[in-house]
Amino acid sequence: MKIKHLTATIAAALLLAVAGCAGGSDPLGNQSAAPSASGSQDQTPIVVGSANFTGSQVLGELYAQALKAKGLNASAKLNIGSREVYLKALEEGTISVVPEYTGNLLINYDKDTKAKTAEEVEQALTEALPEGFKLFTPSAAADQDVYVVTKAYADENGLASLADLKKISAGAVLGGPSELATRAYGPEGLEKIYGAKFKEFKPYDAPAVKARDLNDNKIQVATFFTTESVITENGYVQLADPESMILPQNVVPLVTDAVAGNAEAKAALDAVQAALTTEDLTAMIKRVDTDHDDPGQAAGDWLKEKGLA
Predict the structure, then answer these.
(1) DSSP per position, 161-185
(2) Domain covering 46-143+248-305: architecture
């Protein structure tokens, strides 16, 4: 009787397994091929990174949330650090997407580039990228590095252009993020291209402190991003760059080869890139820096407004 009972139990279990397969379930519990609510089949993890400043964090949230909205297995790992740090993370595979800026990324790989226009920069960058990295579609939205001075200092010294800085640089202090010291458009570029050699370069990792010191004349010239509301809020004078030392910096997703081959991911990020404007990005950054909103909230509201989430 025990043998008959055991045989019947095994048979019943086999029937249940067959019925489960016929119903489309995965007896091994592997859900990677199952479509998501939005129909996506590819559930390979996509980790979106960002640099350690507000604009990049907002873009990182835009990308991660847009990917999630299409049912992809995306997450955000923000505020990683400077370009040197997050490119290493991309190379090592701890992140697979990061928002970048065309001109600055090109200079990172080719300091002697002759590219000047946005189109020339994009073409040169495509050729300069190392193996394993790809670009998706650049946006019309841009976030430029810019040198600024207070209006009072500009009026007092007749400053309107980077070419004017040679008049005051010997007795002036330049302030910027710590990595500016090694950038081609930093102190080295100012001296080489514009003949402006500053008395001192003072590094800042807190934009609010940098702005306070500029207002207090502890530094006389500073760099910010053109999308930062601190420029308009303080009435800073943005110095023209007649020699195009700072290349066009259009927003572009830099991705690994694995993500480059994901058609759904490309479509989701291309849609963000097509809809994004410099004005939109500036407004989202203002929400974070001035209104103290969360980058994820600012990004999520924009995506819903554009019908992308």
Answers:
(1) BGGGGGGTGGG-EEEE-GGGGGSTT
(2) 3-Layer(aba) Sandwich (3.40)
